[in-house]
Amino acid sequence: NMGLYSAVFQAMQKFRIFAFIEVFRVSIVFIASFLLIENGVVGIAFAQLISTIVMNIIFVTIAVKEMPFLLTEKFTFDRKLFHNLLRFGIILWLGNIVVMIISRIDIIFITYFRPLTEVAWYNVSLPTAMLITTFASAISSTLYPTISELWAKGKKNIISNGMNSVIKFFFVAMIPFVFVFLAFPELIIVSLFGQEFAPAAFSLQLLSLAMLFSSMAHIFMGAINGIGRPDLISKTVSIIAVINLILNIIFVPIYGMNGAALSTLISFFLMFIITFNFVKNEIKIDFYLVDICKIFVGGFIALGSISIVKGILIIADPILEAGITFTISMIVYITYLIFGKIIVKDDMKLVEMSGAKIPDGLKKTMNKILRK
Predict the structure, then answer these.
(1) Which tens digit of pLDDT belongs to each residue from 341-350?
(2) Which of 110, 214, 265, 274 has the fewest CB atoms lying closer than 10 Å?
């Protein structure tokens, strides 16, 4: 039922309520599990049941209060609308199944072809890399209903301009996080899971890049769903699923978990390219792959500065060393974005129009530095 409530709040653009649904659910499950843990598995099952009941009571009440028309609106059955919704839903459902298969097939191949220790290592690097996708999920959830409404109203120019900004700011914001995973994979793995999982470091690097492309592809898919073309997504993920399967057959027996990570990277990169072209053609955005490449160049320059600084610094504490090198690399990265005209004054205006509050001192400084 909570999935239905989430969809309703998302569709009605009640994003604050939508954002808190999962937070409430996890909190209730955690508290109930803590209180009932003495009962073992049965206690955990009861905790899940309690959370479901409590969540239904809370969010049905909120839904009725926020959207009273749900109770007062007279129900009428529209056969054509029903068939359109059913077709739309089935296509989305099949697409989600294919995505689930893509995310699981690599683990199946590693389990079959390689020692179980590699399965354990991969199951550490994969969820760690997937932390990168959380930001994209939030953006995609808001884009879907917003673009759907604007598209229905014929406001295609607003969608086009908005997507240009989303693409630019997403890559600019996410590149530093991805390059942290690329620069300090062993430190991240060992700090979180222990020295015995250090062999997962290289697969974490590959998967970090994979999740960057996956995140952007999912944002594009949210936009594509918003304009009513889930068929494009189903075709894309079906093609990618076949490619991913073939790549795993080739790479996993030879390279193990690193081969699986490479297969995932290639697959999600291709998904990114295909969905980008769909968005570019369907929504008519003015953003080009060369613009994304310029941002990546800044990321690689920052990554190079990390390597140089790491070679110069002699600090016993690896976390302190990582903090210093990351700070210096961000200065290099931001300098590149400014002087390479990646970020310009118009971008600052868009940030302000989005409702973000920029301190006056920072705003004046940025306006002096940035070019038109």
Answers:
(1) 776 666 665 5
(2) 274
Q: Which DSSP symbol is given to 13?
A: T
What is the 8-class DSSP label of residue 73? S
Locate 24 and state its tokens. Answer: 């409430």
**Which element (helix H / strand E) includes 119?**
helix 116-129
- Given a contact cutoff of 8 angstroms between Cβ atoms, the answer to whether 341 and 371 are in contact is yes
pLDDT mean over 177-181: 84
Higher pLDDT, 203 or 22: 203
Tokens representing 21 are 């649904």
Instruction: Return the ∠ at Cα 148 (arms to 143 and 149), rounded to 5°.
Output: 105
Q: What's the CA angle centered on 332, arms 329 and 334, to 5 degrees?
A: 110
Dist CA 219 CA 221 (whole Å): 5
Cα separation, 141 vs 233, whole angstroms? 16
Cβ-count burial 125-134 (b if 16+ within 10 Å, e if not) = bbebbbebbe
**How many other CB atoms are there within 10 angstroms of residue 120's CB atom?**
16
Q: What is the pLDDT of residue 356?
A: 47
End-to-end Cα spacing for the chain:
50
With 80 as the cut, is the pLDDT of residue 129 above it? yes
DSSP 247-297: HHHHHHHHHTHHHHHHHHHHHHHHHHHHHHHHHHHHH-----HHHHHHHHH
CA–CA distance, 13 with 18 (Å, rounded to integer): 8
Residue-wise pLDDT for 266-311, tens only, equals 999 999 999 888 888 878 777 667 777 888 888 888 888 887 887 7
| Average confidence (pLDDT) over 76-103 | 69
- Return the residue matching tokens 């250090």: 198
